Amino acid sequence: MENKNNSCSDCAIINCQKQDKTYPQFCPTQKLTKEDIAKIEQLYMEDNNREVSRVSAEIEAQFYCKYTRVEETIEFAKRLNMKKIGIATCVGLLEESRTFAEILKKHDFEVYSAACKIGAMKKTEITGLDKEKTLTTGNIMCNPILQAQTLNKENTDLNVVIGLCVGHDSLFYKYSQALCTTLITKDRVLAHNPAGALYQTGTYYKKLLQ
Known about the structure:
By secondary structure, the chain is of the alpha/beta class. 40% of the residues lie in helices and 11% in strands.
């Protein structure tokens, strides 16, 4: 029996991609009206949305399972004639950010980075966090809003996130004026491979489903 709250993650048909079966009753695609489709199509005509979508599809078609994420990011920026790349990095991944910046410069991009501790503001003063809760990672707060504002002032064409914490990345995306993409998603336990926990839910990470 279909639950009224079923959505895409509950679907095993994927007719939206293959177009060779029948949509389940709960499918959002099936529920779209012509007016809904027209509104979405109009959004793709705004700003550079259509161009971004076209370039993304071209890169997928040409380099699928051939290019790394780093190479795809470079190709994406080049095809959109972007000149200046911003890097929003965790201080714990500065070495990775330096390497990425060096690669970008070799490809003739201007690069400007902003680390998460920029501003050196204190968690206890800004967030009201108890001092006892700062003993493990320190009292200097991650500052994604200032990271975004810093890169905004630099007029970056594309901002690349490297290892920002859960939630901090959300605030960065919220305040970034430039288009954003993520190069590294932080997961210190799994060597920055958060999908590893999903692959291991039948064994070591079974606890996630309990």
